[in-house]
Design brief:
Blueprint (H helix, E strand, L loop, with lengths): L3 E5 L3 H12 L3 E5 L2 H10 L1 E5 L4 E4 L5 E3 L10 E4 L6 H11 L5 E5 L5 H8 L5 E6 L3 E5 L2 E4 L5 E4 L5 H9 L4 E4 L2 H12 L1 H8 L3 H5 L2 H20 L15 H5 L3 H7 L13 H7 L6 H14 L5 H14 L8 H8 L2
Parallel strand pairs: 1-2, 1-6, 2-5, 3-10, 6-7, 7-8, 11-12
Antiparallel strand pairs: 3-4, 8-11, 9-10
Helix pairs in contact: 1-5, 3-4, 7-9, 7-12, 7-14, 9-13, 9-15, 13-14
Bound molecules: NADP nicotinamide-adenine-dinucleotide phosphate.
Length: 335
């Protein structure tokens, strides 16, 4: 198969998806930081998932760049930086030129593809999203801890990407209405700040009703704004999106029975926002809760729960607390 892919932002998602595409037969070149280049040069790249898939690429099989200008000619450029870095990446790509490559944003949030498109008006930029979670385990190891597919805006020439991903065991879908897919994913991502502030693995956090009640409150505000904006909500989990707040509110014994697929994940999986706080980096909270607050405002609504949680995450970014119990968090955000 002739398929040349550039991964711009080789971190958790970039290394996992790049590794999966290379496993599926694509030629992949990674662009990332010096730190990641050294880690992969020393240990190679190892991807695995919670179902038991394992695949390793030796360092000699990897093409890793740290300079934009050294990127070769590519069919697709997949952007996998955090949302706060998209503008800078877009500017650098616009300067070096993308040589006709199709650009795919595989990021959370709802605004990244538009930002990329603004900087590169002549390029075809597609929105995409990843429904599963990837954790960096060090020494070149990237582990998918939850279930889910890669979904990309329907467009010509995506079949080879789909074939390579499916060959690696990663489900791939296209969708015509990515705006609604991204907002539906954002609803689920509202758990990221809760997980980050709980300092617990996702499975432990979601098994506790008080944390789930926090998530239900955030989702109710988001659903109100999404409905006011007339954005259809897609079903991305076993539970229809509109039912999520009700299911999350159930007592633990009922939730663990009725919502078992929502807990089918690696017991050690955590959100990437937890990883950001752990590393002392700025989080994507403005691109998640911040978007809910803006959409609500645009439609004459308020989103006070999302505002309070956003403020707590910003405090944690500045070194504040990030070990709240579910009850403490619930009291603080619903005050
Ligand atoms: N991780 C997950 O489980 C997951 C799941 C679904 C969706 N997502 C979404 O996918 C996106 C990527 O998340 P992630 O967790 O993979 O992030 P990540 O681990 O931080 O990876 C991004 C990488 O890009 C690097 N980078 C940033 N700017 C760069 C530049 N100008 N040049 C070269 N490298 C640069 C970062 O380095 P520095 O850190 O040094 O800046 C980092 O290594 C986010 O929107 C996230 O919400 C993540």
């Amino acid at each position: 198969m002739s398929l040349r892919i550039g991964i711009v932002g080789a971190g958790s998602i970039g290394c996992y998806i790049g590794g999966a595409l290379q496993m599926g037969g694509a030629e992949v070149c990674f662009l990332g930081r010096e730190r990641m280049a050294s880690e992969l040069a020393e240990h190679g790249l190892h991807i695995s998932d919670f179902r038991g898939m394992k695949y390793s690429l030796p360092a000699s099989a990897l093409h890793f760049h740290t300079e934009f200008r050294s990127l070769p000619e590519l069919d697709f450029i997949i952007v996998t930086v955090k949302s706060g870095d998209t503008a800078a990446i877009a500017e650098q790509l616009a300067v070096v030129g993308t040589g006709g490559a199709t650009i795919i944003s595989l990021q959370n949030g709802v605004a990244n593809a538009a930002l990329l498109s603004q900087a590169m008006p002549s390029a075809l930029v597609l929105s995409g999203m990843i429904a599963f979670n990837v954790l960096q385990r060090g020494e070149g190891r990237f582990h998918a801890g939850t279930d889910g597919a890669v979904i990309v805006q329907a467009a010509p020439r995506l079949d080879k990407i789909g074939t390579a991903l499916v060959a690696s065991g990663t489900p791939f879908e296209t969708h015509r209405d990515m705006r609604s897919v991204l907002w539906s994913k954002l609803l689920l991502n509202l758990n990221n700040p809760i997980n980050a502030l709980s300092n617990l693995p996702l499975k432990t956090e979601l098994s506790q009703r008080a944390y789930r009640r926090c998530l239900a409150l955030l989702q109710r505000e988001a659903l109100a704004a999404i409905t006011a904006a007339d954005i259809p909500v897609q079903r991305l989990t076993a539970v229809p999106a509109s039912m999520l707040p009700y299911i999350l509110n159930l007592p633990d014994f009922l939730f663990t029975r009725l919502a078992q697929p929502m807990l089918a994940m690696d017991p050690l999986a955590r959100s990437s926002m937890w990883e950001d706080l752990e590393r002392g980096r700025k989080t994507e909270v403005e691109w998640l809760n911040g978007e809910v607050i803006s959409l609500a405002r645009e439609h004459g609504l308020n989103a006070p729960v999302n505002s309070r949680l956003k403020a707590l995450v910003h405090a944690a970014e500045q070194g504040g607390r990030r070990d709240y119990s579910g009850e403490e968090l619930l009291a603080l955000i619903s005050a």
